[in-house]
Amino acid sequence: AQKITQTQPGMFVQEKEAVTLDCTYDTSDPSYGLFWYKQPSSGEMIFLIYQGSYDQQNATEGRYSLNFQKARKSANLVISASQLGDSAMYFCAMRERSGGYQKVTFGTGTKLQVIP
Amino acid sequence: SQTIHQWPATLVQPVGSPLSLECTVEGTSNPNLYWYRQAAGRGLQLLFYSVGIGQISSEVPQNLSASRPQDRQFILSSKKLLLSDSGFYLCAWRRTTGGKGSEQFFGPGTRLTVL
User: Fold this and answer.
1) Which of B32, B44, B105 sits opposite A106 (nearest CB)?
2) Lower CB density within 10 Å: C or N end of chain A?
3) Which of B49, B102, B109 sits opposite A33 (nearest CB)?
4) Contact status, residue B19 vs residue B76, Cβ threshold 8 Å
5) pLDDT over 70 for what percent of chain B?
6) Binning pLDDT at 50, 70 and 90, where does residue A94 land?
7) How many A-B residue pairs are in contact by the CB < 8 A criterion?
8) Residue B74: exposed, middle, or buried by beta-carbon count in 10 A (0-12, 13-18, 19+)?
9) Which residues of A30-52 are buried (b: 16+ CB within 10 A; e: fewer)?
10) Would the CB atoms of B88 and A99 count as touching at under 8 Å?
């Protein structure tokens, strides 16, 4: 079974509009963390936002917010007021305990294109 | 501040040739270190991770190997490259203690093309 599932291979959004990128996860570890990363065409991976499994409130970082629905095992990324520079690949990732160590698993990514 | 370096940035190698990619981290000690591969247009695949010197865990069977000869040095190697080894290789580190969410910090990557 997939640990991290991103069902949207590609998304388009109009500049200044909000967009939601979907992510669902699967783990039996009660203490896990969820991350979103941005990868522009240059290839670098940029950390955006983090949500811990015990965090009561949804994480927010500037224009990024994480819609964490624990019962549904979903951790969708919401980008408000999209900008042209937001065009990139976006990866959802999960950190969990595995064999006594912390392991991070990435989804397959969503390619976001912001339209002027 | 912490930085992570990878080299080379790009590499073109013939099939059957050896490979050595190097990753070093500065400004932190005893980090967890990771090697990922990203095929063109695909997600990241975890290849190896290391929690300490000489401690390597392999996630997938393959013709690649990893070594950690020093605390902040992580090396990805192959004795004979395959065409399927082409991809973008990313090294990452993570604090073993503290840090908000213990996120991974990534290096700039190495783009490997096997011909």
Assistant:
1) B44
2) N
3) B102
4) yes
5) 92
6) very high
7) 56
8) buried
9) eebbbbbbbbeeebebebbbbbb
10) no
d(Cα A110, Cα A93) in Å, to the nearest integer?
Answer: 12
pLDDT at B101 over 70: no
Give the residue from chain A lying closest to B6, CA to CA.
A44
User: Confidence band (pLDDT; 50, 70, 90) for B94?
Assistant: confident
Say which of B43, B51, B57 has its CB closest to residue A108. B43
**At A33, which amino acid appears?**
G
Average pLDDT of chain A?
Answer: 92
What average pLDDT does this structure show over A86-102?
87
Q: How many CA atoms lie within 13 A of A11 on its CB side?
A: 24
Tokens linked to B86:
């082409």
Which residues in chain A have their CB less than 8 angstroms from residue B48's CB?
none
**Omega into B8 within 30° of 0, i.e. cis?**
yes
* Contact B11/A at CB under 8 A: no
C-alpha span between A38 and B108 (Å, rounded): 13
